[in-house]
Amino acid sequence: MNYILKLPYALIRPVYERTHFHTAVIDEISRDELRQAYRHCRQITREYAKTFYMATRLLPNKKQRSIFAIYAMCRHIDDLVDEAEDLVLQKKLDSRQIPVMLDQWKSHLIRTYNGEQIDHPVLTALSDVLKEYNLPIELPFQLMDGVCMDLTKKRYETFEELYEYSYKVASVVGLMVSEVFGYDDEKALDHAVQLGIAMQLTNILRDVGEDLKRGRIYLPQDELRKFGISEQDLFDHKIDDKFRDFMEFQIQRAEQYYSDADPGIPMLSSDSHYPVAMARLNYSKILQRIRDNDYQVFTHRAFLSTTEKLSIIPRIWWKKRRT
Prior knowledge:
Elements lengths: L1 H19 L3 H4 L4 H17 L1 H7 L4 H29 L7 H17 L7 H10 L7 H15 L6 H23 L5 H20 L1 H6 L7 H6 L4 H5 L5 H21 L11 H20 L13 H5 L1 H11 L1
């Protein structure tokens, strides 16, 4: 019994220490410019993707660094569009300049893939990643297409439309990081797509209130009508039985995508099992937290504490031990 209790703690302690104090993952790099580039990418990941960041700390150093670079690239693309949109609203930028900015970044990506060194920390780190892993350039291009949908599309009539968006902004990220995780069976990629959909649906349900502030409603319009919920109900932050039933329907669909993604985890390289399982379980727990908050997603953002995120590790270890 003592052995069972000690082993999960032996897993938790290194994750906590590496998350807060460990520097070898970056400091072992000899080139100063590359070391600084990875530090930049790690800081972005730690700041904007706390759950994902904590999970990656279970990976070997090289894989950690690569994940930081991929996430930072994805975040830069997302921020490029969001910041440009804000500037347009403030009348500090002409909307016609946004496609020019995106084309410039796409050009930088192409040159990086072709082996050129671009003076940008994210691209410097990405260039190093591309020496080790095959990341099809079509994937970041699809991500750019998805992010650009936010410039023109504020509503989604059906779940099929929302699925397309979620695939482009989330599943393609899963496909990229899967190349770093490593896999024994290409079917793992299908499950990576499902996990991406599940996580994006979780984001959408968690961020309903924040999205309303930007005039966006990602919830399928036809399903809102089916449950008798109007847009004004959302803007009025109305929580009644109809809204609870609607949210529960959405949550159960997201949970099904998580379940469908689970068979892909054992298909990954063994050193990636724990990190992916940790990210999956902690992210899916946000859905239960929404339930616990009585579906209050307008003024309260569901989240997990660091302790709650770490507490999932013994469960992962015990489940793996029994299989």
